[in-house]
Structure prediction request, 218 residues.
Amino acid sequence: MQSLAYVLLLVLILSAIIAIVLGIFWFKERKNKEGKKYKRNRLGTLIALAVMVISLFSAGGAQSEATHEEEAAIARQEKLDKQNYKDNKEDFTSLYYDLGVAVEQLSSKESDEWESAIDNSGEDFDIDSTIDNISDNHSDDIDDVEAKIEKLHSLDQKIQKNEYASDEDKETIHNAYLDLKHFANHTTSISGSYNDFTDEHNELDRKTTDRVEELQDL
Prediction:
């Protein structure tokens, strides 16, 4: 409909130009009202004026209809964005809670195994082999956490691109994702010392717990 409005506007402009040109010729031939040029220019001017008037009203109607269609499309998109945000936010919060619990449990198991390895190894403790063994023991859990973090990332990106979601909600959700991603990396890519690992566990566990409460308040 917008294209039609543009075409009618073009017709309006062209007919106005033609009406002006023929009107000038008509005026010049006014002394010879019975002549062919006078009659031809008069008829052409009147036709051009008629086309101009019709085009004017038609263009106005087409533009009004185009505006109405655009407003309706915007309203439909806003409704769709609102529903998508609601669904994605619910999916994000649900997955966040489940994944947070899984990461916390995995980190606790890894910490316990690390502590046992220290207690049972005496002077022969090897940190690299201990970390490798722990990672091998929980390879399936690690793969599962990494897959779910990717899904959580996808949901976060959908929300960040959603026009309905407020900037405050987007920031809350994205920061929550970053904290849990950091916690997940802590469990899937073990490094550092045992004390650093446990200290980081406590800090990240507290952060993600706080984030769950923030998400539930959205």
In short: Residues 19 and 48 are 5 Å apart (CA to CA).
